[in-house]
Amino acid sequence: MSGRKKFIQQLGLMAGAFSVNSIFNQLHAAEISSANSLVKNLSSEAIASNEDYWSIIQQSYTVSPNIINLNNGGVSPSPRVVQEAVERYNKLTNEGPSYFMWRILDQGREPLRESLANLAGCEKEEIAINRNATEALNTIIFGLDLKAGDEVIGAMLDYPNMMSAWKQRALREGIVYKQLSFSFPIENDEEIVAAYEKAITPKTKIIHVTHIVNWVGQIMPVRKISDMAHKYGIEVICDGAHSFGLLDFKIPDLHCDYFGTSLHKFLSAPIGSGMLYIKKEKIEKIWPLVCNPNPKSSDIRKFETLGTRSFPIEQGIGEAINFHNAIGSKRKEDRVRYLKNYWVEKVKGIPRVKIHTSLKAEYSCAICGISIDGVNPRDLDSKLFNEYKIHTVPIVYDTANCVRVTPHVYTRLSELDKFVKAVTEIAAAK
Ligand SMILES: Cc1ncc(COP(=O)(O)O)c(C=O)c1O
Fold first, then answer.
1. Residues enclosing ligand 1, CB less than 6 A?
2. Neighbours of 67 (CB within 10 A)
3. Mean pLDDT on 268-287
């Protein structure tokens, strides 16, 4: 093929990537639409247990058949369509990085911002694309003008990277960082809201809340906390690392001022992709974490001067959104909760087994903690892997003391049956 012809073909390829004629449409649309027609008369709750439908979704992933990965809370795999997009963009990039990245792939950023904003239910001017929740939330934490003595209320069970950021501000600038201690599960929104409200003083400026607590999966009443906080003129930062792409909600529903998430968890976007949301009128006052010539600009793009980074990973997010939308947020949430309930219902009555997460839909979805009396969570995690090749994560911190189990849309019931068998045998052993 002549260079010119190849070049024109590549341009066509790129145009396709940013349009409805994406890799997803080329490879998966037919499969998924036939799956969708299979269940078109069913409610989302009924679809949650329709194994014919979910087997098509399972086949869209390339996960190892040799280990059972129940730590999707840590990071999730991407479906094949997303992996292929990243590989394709990467190959293209390496044909002439500065040209293809900065002149061709770069054209995809604004359409991508729009797709993310549609998914998030906000304006595209409120979305910045970055590399993970840590970067998104650190942008807010370090970008806020706070002075010595100003107070921030968070929780012991927030995510360590955000706690470290607040602690660094406390150390360096003398802000006061207070952390609430919760013993989850708590099935009472008012109790949680009251705990934050009780900690408020005239110096409180910020409440930092984790939408789904990573340690034990508690869903926090972010909207109620935000409404309460706003009555005192306090702003709310929401860590949505585990909720975006899993729960069926729009960011503005939460009434928070700032929201950061990783896209490589439940959205199944390429690993190393994240998103920041800032309410339009608040953008101007937040300083960028990484330099920008106009730090006081009200343009959300001032948070994207990250230097050279992976354009293939960023552009791969678009295919993850296509894949997600083909399933639908409500269906995904219902299925993942169904999977959690599937295994929990089978083990919760077993002697010595303790469940550390609420089973009520409003308080939990994918993540659930489990322990077995007399077995240290680290030993339980090791046994699950060494003896059954089931990958989980031990959680031993503050009030959390369990093994965290997180299925995803590609998890098979047969895998959960193996997990149930493993728990049954471990709990029965002396
Ligand atoms: C609640 C919560 N926030 C933030 C993060 C950070 O995510 P990342 O490592 O993608 O920045 C995590 C990671 O697991 C998390 O659980």
1. 132-134, 159, 161, 210, 214, 239, 241-242, 262
2. 13
3. 98
